[in-house]
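F.,

This is the one I mentioned.
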């Protein structure tokens, strides 16, 4: 075990949340071990500002729970304790121990469970700090910090990898991906976020193990999707997923569409850049917008097909939206609070084609207008032909209602102009 004294690293206690420090000192007062661990130590060493703080301890979840009134035990597959301080949540995990080839009674009991294929179904066997370090995913995520002595403990040569800007899975990558295939997504996420390179064996094993992602429950894939695309590096993450061909385990229909729709990738890239920019500016973001972009090529193709079969554009888009979301949800669960706005953004694209009448004038005030309009601009940015619709709405929405009504050629009759026959829909 490498111990790095305070003079040899740049972690400043001032950048550590008071909640995390409190948790650590309270655990230590109760004679437990406790360290800051994971992403927070990594980010502190990189001079970044950690977004959350994880604590590792030898106290069991129950013991932690007993010590903090403001805490609760969560998770089944991997039980941890959340300790809340106002808006901040400190994640406290008990040191994990060995269990894979462990034939002792302890290793075979209900605390640990593996599927026939080696997938770790449950990991609640506890151990020492050294054991805990090698159970973690990446060397750069397995550094421990002692806020009292200000020493860093490095059991896996993580500091060297941090200096080399390398993402390296601890142990044998193939075995570690087999235990938990989501680690492959984590590898790509951290490579993108930190702008690090994959160490060769870490990279090579991905191709071999990628198919194991099919075993991951759709709810966990969605959780991981949020971490992949809402961390401010969505554009870089997308490129990693494409390079290692993992997008098809999250969105198989999209991946298939990318093969023959050359507008698909530019649109998805534009949406990811857009989200990253908004996050950098501190603006709110919703995964519904990204999902709308990721699945638009699929929905669009479906709608085209239905139109060819004689459905009206609106009916076709309506059914296509439903089909697309249902299909996608077989792999990655999409909660209704996101699928509903996605559908509205898509259907709105057709309504935005109509520049005339009271309907057009009123559209601007509708709840989903802003997101739908932003989405239209993305489609244009991606090279889709829309007959300058975006520019038109950019100007039109700035007008007061009175003038909008005038410009749209409506005297408030609400009468619809008949659709020109043979006019090609732009969406
Ligand atoms: P972030 O900045 O995204 O919070 P993080 O490194 O803290 O990054 P978390 O998902 O919060 O990532 O996990 C905390 C720590 O738990 C990680 O640093 C890693 O050591 C360990 N960990 C998380 N998921 C896994 C996993 N699937 N397998 C092994 N270790 C894991
Ligand atoms: Mg974390």
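My design for it:
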């Amino acid at each position: 075990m490498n111990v790095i004294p305070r003079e040899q690293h740049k972690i400043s206690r001032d950048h550590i949340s008071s909640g995390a420090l409190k948790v650590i000192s309270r655990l230590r007062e109760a004679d437990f071990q406790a360290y800051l661990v994971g992403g927070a130590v990594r980010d502190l060493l990189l001079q970044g500002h950690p977004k959350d703080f994880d604590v590792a301890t030898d106290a069991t979840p129950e013991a932690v729970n007993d010590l903090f009134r403001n805490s609760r035990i969560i998770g089944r597959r991997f039980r941890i304790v959340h300790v809340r301080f106002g808006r901040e949540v400190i994640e406290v995990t008990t040191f994990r121990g060995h269990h894979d080839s462990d034939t002792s009674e302890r290793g075979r009991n209900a605390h640990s469970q593996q599927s026939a294929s080696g997938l770790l179904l449950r990991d609640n066997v506890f151990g020492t700090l050294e054991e805990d370090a090698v159970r973690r995913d990446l060397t750069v995520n397995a550094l421990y910090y002692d806020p009292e002595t200000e020493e860093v403990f490095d059991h896996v040569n993580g500091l060297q990898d941090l200096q080399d800007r390398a993402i390296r899975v601890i142990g044998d990558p193939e075995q570690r991906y087999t235990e938990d295939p989501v680690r492959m997504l984590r590898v790509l996420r951290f490579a993108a976020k930190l702008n690090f390179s994959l160490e060769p064996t870490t990279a090579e094993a991905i191709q071999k193990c990628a198919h194991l992602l099919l075993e991951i429950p759709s709810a966990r894939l969605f959780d991981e999707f949020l971490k992949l695309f809402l961390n401010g590096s969505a554009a870089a993450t997308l490129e990693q997923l494409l390079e290692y061909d993992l997008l098809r385990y999250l969105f198989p229909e999209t991946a298939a569409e990318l093969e023959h729709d050359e507008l698909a990738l530019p649109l998805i890239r534009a949406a990811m850049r857009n989200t990253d920019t908004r996050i950098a500016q501190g603006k709110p973001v919703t995964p519904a917008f990204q999902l709308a972009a990721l699945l638009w090529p699929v929905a669009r193709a479906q709608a085209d097909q239905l139109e060819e079969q004689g459905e009206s554009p609106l009916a076709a888009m309506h059914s296509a939206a439903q089909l697309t979301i249902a299909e996608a949800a077989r792999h990655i669960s999409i909660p209704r609070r996101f699928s509903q706005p996605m559908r509205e953004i898509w259907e709105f694209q057709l309504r935005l084609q109509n520049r005339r009448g009271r309907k057009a004038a009123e559209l601007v005030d509708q709840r989903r207008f802003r997101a739908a309009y932003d989405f239209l601009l993305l489609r244009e940015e991606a090279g889709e032909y829309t007959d300058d619709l975006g520019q038109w709405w950019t100007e039109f929405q700035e007008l007061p209602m009175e003038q909008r009504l005038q410009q749209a050629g409506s005297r408030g009759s609400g009468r619809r102009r008949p659709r020109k026959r043979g006019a090609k829909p732009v969406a």
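The chain has a mean pLDDT of 90.

Talk soon.
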